[in-house]
Amino acid sequence: MKTKTSKAQKAIARAEARGVIDLTLVHRGNLAGARTVLAVLESGDVPDFLRDAVMDALLAAARVNGQVLPNFDEPKTQQIKTLADLLAVTGGNFTPKPDPDSIEAFALHLSEVLRLARTSDFVPADFYNAIGEACNDHLTNELLRDSETPEFIKFALERIAPRAAKGGGGSAT
C-alpha cells in the first residue's frame, strides 16, 4: 500500500536513517502498545476471534491512515517499530469514520451537536430544547407514517425488549 508522504516526513525519515535523530523516545508509549499488540497476535492463549478482531482493527487503521502493517517475517524490532508508527498516527485511538456524505455521518454529527448543546455551560437550555424539539418533531412525524409496517413494529419491539426485560414493561398478569 502506498502512502502519501510529505517533504517533512521524508526529511525526518532521512535523518532517522542517518542516525541524526531518534524518535524512539517520542513514541515510548506507542512502543509499549505495539509490544502488547504483537504479544496478543502471537499468543497461543488468545482465542482466534480476538486475534482476528485485532488484525481487522489494525488493517482498517492502516488503510484509513495510509500506513502499512508490519511484515511479520521481519525482525521483531522492525515489527514493533512499524506497529508503533501506526499507533502514533492514530493517536492510540481509532474509530472508522463514516463516509461524510452518508446518513451515518449526518446522524453521528447531529448526535454530537445535541450532546454538546446539552452538556455545555455556554449553550442556553432553550437553544438545546429548540434543536431537540425540531429533530424530535420531524423524526416522529416521519416514523408515524410507517408505524403500521412490520419493519417499524419489529424495530420498536427490539428497542423496547431490553427495557421490558429489566422490569420496565410487559403485561401485568
Structural commentary:
It is a single chain. The protein is an all-alpha fold and 173 residues long. It has two domains: 7-90, no CATH class; 103-168, no CATH class. It has seven helices and no strands. It has helices at 7-17, 28-42, 48-65, 76-90, 103-119, 125-145, 150-168. Helix 2 packs across helix 4. The longest helix has 21 residues, at 125-145. It is elongated. The model has no long low-confidence stretch (mean pLDDT 78).
What share of residues are in beta strands?
under 5%
The helix fraction, in percent, is 55-70%
Structural class: mainly alpha
Report on the biggest sheet: none
Helix tally equals 7
Topology:
Blueprint: H1 7-17, H2 28-42, H3 48-65, H4 76-90, H5 103-119, H6 125-145, H7 150-168
Helix pairs in contact: 2-3, 2-4
Q: What is the gist of this entry?
A:
The protein is mostly helical and 173 residues long. Helix content is 67%, strand content 0%.
